[in-house]
Design goal:
Blueprint: E1 2-11, E2 14-19, E3 24-29, E4 41-46, E5 51-57, E6 63-67, E7 72-77, E8 81-87, H1 94-107, E9 110-116, H2 123-134, E10 138-141, H3 152-155, E11 159-163, H4 170-177, H5 181-191, E12 202-208, E13 211-215, H6 229-235, H7 260-266, H8 272-290
Bound molecules: guanosine-5'-triphosphate and zinc ion.
Zinc ion binds near residues 251, 253, 256 and 261.
């Protein structure tokens, strides 16, 4: 008989699956296939009272990938919101922020930008943040060390994933939201003998009956090779009104005469930095496909 469950932790080839009654099983997938992730709803065949085999994965509402030059990996499944954690200090890479926004747009997931350590002044960071707020992204200054309560209304009803460079305060946010749950999860992982990978694993934590948060290990690079050129254009929200109006219908928006996107950049309607990122990712992906 198959049991229905939810993947609450992914450690390479091993997954912790939570059953409806709250029990947690250590599971593997059938064969060599390792394409599951935290957030997946799965059917599991029990092989002991602590272990099982994932037989089936339910269709996903959303799927978030991270890719490098060699392969795409699923970062999380069924996420409805991506929380990008930045901080006033150390300074953050706008490149990574933009890559996260593009990944979110391409996957049809809402993106929220958190500027943590707002107790440490950094006018430059606030200016940067304002540019993304203008694009329509929810942007929230936070002092996670003092309180994470400002986050709670944003998290309600969502399955959110936290992403960000190391040192921005992701652990502080998780600990603030879930003081006891986190240590309990580590205990479960230890009894299931997956504990040694705990820090590199992706974990899903329940916040309440209809909200959860997924913690992923520090994200340093975020390849977007899995996004095709059309999806890439649409991932830039401010490009959308101009798409389809260029002189050439196969316009790459990089050098062509009669390009409406380039005209919008020239008029100051599209930030040059965002167009720059677009060109860069376009070039990376082209090398990846044809190189
Ligand atoms: N001043 C200030 N410091 C903070 C705040 N939030 C976190 N910190 C500090 O920033 C440092 C990094 O925080 P962590 O929560 O460990 O960062 P992380 O993003 O989990 O980093 P990794 O574990 O490397 O992925 C710690 O020394 C925290 O105490 C904040 O709001 N204000
Ligand atoms: Zn164009």
């Amino acid at each position: 008989m198959l049991e229905q469950g939810l993947i609450v932790a992914a450690f390479g080839k091993r997954y912790n699956v939570e059953l409806a009654d709250g029990r947690i099983l250590s599971c593997v997938t059938r064969g060599k296939k390792v394409d599951n992730a935290a957030g997946d709803r799965v059917s599991v065949k029990l092989t002991s009272n602590k272990e099982g085999v994932i037989e089936k994965t339910a269709e996903r509402d959303t799927l978030l990938y991270r890719s490098n030059a060699f392969k795409s990996k699923i970062l999380a499944a069924n996420v409805t919101q991506i929380l990008i954690v930045l901080a006033t200090q150390p300074s953050f890479y706008e490149d990574l922020l933009n890559r996260c926004l593009i990944a979110a747009e391409a996957a049809g997931i809402r993106a929220v930008i958190i500027l943590n350590k707002s107790d440490l002044p950094n006018p430059d960071a606030l200016d940067k943040l304002a540019r993304y707020a203008q694009l329509g992204y929810i942007s929230l200054p936070l002092n996670a060390k003092a309180s994470v309560d400002a986050l709670r209304p944003i998290l309600a009803g969502h399955t959110s994933i936290l992403v960000g460079q190391s040192g921005m305060g992701k652990s502080t946010i998780i600990n603030g939201l879930l003081p006891e749950v986190r240590s309990k999860t580590q205990e479960i992982s230890t009894t299931l003998d997956s504990g040694k990978h705990t820090t590199t694993a992706t974990h899903l934590y329940h916040l309440d009956n209809d909200s959860a948060i997924i913690d992923s290990p520090g994200l340093q690079e975020f390849g977007l090779y899995h996004i095709d050129s059309i999806a890439l254009e649409y991932a830039f929200v401010e490009f959308r009104p101009h798409i389809g109006h260029c002189k050439f219908n196969n316009c790459t928006h990089t050098h062509e005469p009669g390009c409406m996107i380039l005209q919008a950049v020239a008029k100051g309607e599209i930030a040059p930095a965002r167009h720059q990122i677009f060109q860069q990712i376009r070039a990376e992906n082209a090398v990846h496909i044809y190189g």
